[in-house]
Design goal:
Aminopeptidase; alpha+beta; seven-stranded mixed β-sheet; disordered C terminus; 23% strand; 184 residues; single chain
């Protein structure tokens, strides 16, 4: 799906304990787990065509992607979480999945990818701002947000948050809020 670069952050070591998941007034994060397969499946199915266009994750999610395939996908995300290879979280409002976010290794820290259901797009900036603040408690020198250059909505959102352009994965326009040590 996404390109990862190795990072020397302790967040990617077996003994690391991630901070408690973020909780806001009417939404919260929880590690993406196979038990969430049905609500996750319904959430991304509701906006699949937009996600395929915006994310360009090698055609994911495909039109024939089944609930069982989704459960297996979430099991792999959870295995990566347990092994500290990557951290995937479901964004829940009550019991409903309204989106997901993915924290993955990148150079001096991490990259953050995310998606939201159509009805949560007006709150996308609010949630990402809170998530970036929460990630300040993680041992990352930098958190990168790689976006596709044609995704004007997400680009406007990260610019509204005051994130600065930076180098990132090929084929993306990336932004960060943090300075590299000794950087500007």
């Amino acid at each position: 799906m996404r390109q990862r670069l190795s990072s020397n952050s302790p967040a990617w070591s077996k003994g690391f304990q991630p901070p408690p998941p973020l909780a806001a007034q009417d939404w919260h994060l929880t590690p993406l787990h196979p038990d969430l397969s049905e609500v996750d499946y319904q959430a991304w199915k509701s906006c699949r065509e937009r996600l395929v266009r915006e994310l360009d994750w090698n055609g994911w999610p495909g039109p024939e992607f089944s609930l069982e395939e989704n459960r297996l996908d979430l099991a792999e995300h959870y295995r990566e979480f347990e092994d500290r290879e990557a951290y995937a979280y479901s964004v829940l409002s009550g019991e409903d999945c309204v989106g997901c976010l993915y924290i993955e290794p990148w150079s001096s820290g991490a990259q953050l990818a995310f998606w939201f259901r159509d009805d949560w797009l007006p709150r996308e900036t609010e949630v990402i701002e809170a998530v970036l603040k929460w990630l300040e408690g993680w041992p990352f020198d930098e958190v990168l947000l790689p976006l596709r250059p044609w995704n004007a909505r997400k680009l406007a959102a990260v610019q509204a948050l005051g994130l600065r352009p930076c180098a990132g994965p090929e084929g993306h326009v990336s932004h960060t809020q943090r300075r590299r040590p000794g950087g500007t």
